[in-house]
């Protein structure tokens, strides 16, 4: 049985599937303080025992971090796991192949293969959770950037005189429109406009056919899809194609993408 794990800033999801997206087991939990890598591995080991699945055939991990080709993590401010080689840790612990990828890349891969990006030449996947991340699909492929760091839409500066961000800049998108901003009581009417500014910049730069939105923050009171659609033209180049702006239909696109990676790469 293949396992998939989605590790976000405040949540973990673990699923075991026999084939395709035929989930046989599922676990979801949250935390308020940072969790350590060994705690995640202990949790997975406990689930393997509880579910009586035996050793996994493979494990795919979606994680809120920049991941190099060997599974080494960087840019994991939400988790604080920079420098951890998660692929090696998992393979040593469980004795099976592991594939590690940035969470938004996993979500975009799922949308490309089985979701809202099917048939699109270009699409922007934007996940709004504890922070804000993105992935870009071009010609049926993920565009990951020169050093695999093209995933941080939340750190686009919206207001140079704005609130301090944990990245060290001022006025990043995620200081206004994110789960963290909402928990701090900062998200409100300005959040939707800030998101429209960021997406408008993306439309002007790359003109995607579709923008697919995902993440738990979309369920917060400040988010209004139709209002966002109405705002977007004011912040993008008038001659640019206005994209089809939609919410994902999948409850766990990042988790599904991690499972797809295990099927395609192991």
Automatic annotation (TrEMBL):
Pfam families: ROK. PANTHER family: BIFUNCTIONAL UDP-N-ACETYLGLUCOSAMINE 2-EPIMERASE_N-ACETYLMANNOSAMINE KINASE (PTHR18964:SF149), ROK (REPRESSOR, ORF, KINASE) FAMILY (PTHR18964). Belongs to the ROK (NagC/XylR) family. This is Sugar kinase. It comes from Hoeflea olei.
